[in-house]
Design a protein that fits this description.
Number of helices: 0
Number of strands: 15
CATH class of the largest domain: Mainly Beta
Distance between the termini: 22 Å
CATH topology of the largest domain: Neuraminidase
CATH architecture of the largest domain: 6 Propeller
Radius of gyration: 17 Å
Length: about 220
């Protein structure tokens, strides 16, 4: 079936022509959250903070976080605590946690998981992210050739899932039982195959959660 452009839901305006949207996702209440990053053609993405993180409401993108370098993965602690959001700004080298109030605004920012090793840059950055039905996080690593599984309770690394491509971009559960982890990768910079391919990881012994529909 052919996709049709029906209407524009929101526009950031001419002042934001130097950025583009990156990751976005709908929360358990049907609210869309999405973030931006500077256009790749305008210089070092990690040396600037031109991006922002938004919540969509009634045709308006409401700012939730400013001074973002590369707005990336996001997920929620559900069904345990759906008012708990996890969020990645890749250049920060960590996963932030927020409380979500009744209006959908983010409060009480904390560092949930730091990717640095003894305070040092690990040589890769966090990219896309999802969580399983137990609330544990799965973090794609650009430059790391792996997906990191993090325990939601202890905030410690539980598992590293090796991927035969360096630039791991995002993760999502799928399959008839939602027990297969699909992993996207990039061939940016001319990386040879299997870079840029989609991988399926089975046998993890966990299940994901269905995605939510956006309430317009």
């Amino acid at each position: 079936e052919e996709a049709l452009h029906v209407r524009v839901l929101a526009d950031l305006g001419n002042s934001q022509n130097h950025v583009r949207f990156n990751d976005g996702k709908v929360d358990p209440s049907g609210r869309l959250y999405a973030g931006t990053m500077q256009l790749e053609t305008l210089g070092d993405l990690f040396a600037q903070k031109e991006g922002q993180f938004f919540r969509y409401t009634n045709g308006t993108m409401v700012v939730q976080k400013k001074n973002v370098s590369i707005s990336n993965g996001l997920t929620w602690d559900e069904p345990g605590n759906p008012s708990r959001m996890y969020y990645i700004d890749s250049a920060a080298l960590d996963v932030k946690a927020f409380d979500v109030d009744d209006n959908g605004d983010l409060k009480n920012e904390t560092v949930f998981f730091d990717l640095r090793v003894n305070g040092a840059n690990p040589g890769y950055v966090p990219d896309g992210m999802t969580s399983d039905a137990d609330g544990n996080l799965y973090i794609a690593t650009w430059g790391g050739s792996k997906v990191m599984k993090v325990d939601k309770r202890t905030q410690q690394l539980l598992q590293e899932i090796k991927i035969p491509a360096e630039q791991v971009t995002s993760v999502a559960f799928g399959g008839p039982q939602l027990d297969e982890l699909f992993v996207t990768t990039s061939s940016n910079g001319g990386k040879p195959a299997p870079a840029g391919e989609l991988f399926k990881v089975t046998g993890l012994g966990v299940k994901g959660k269905p995605m939510h529909k956006m309430i317009l």
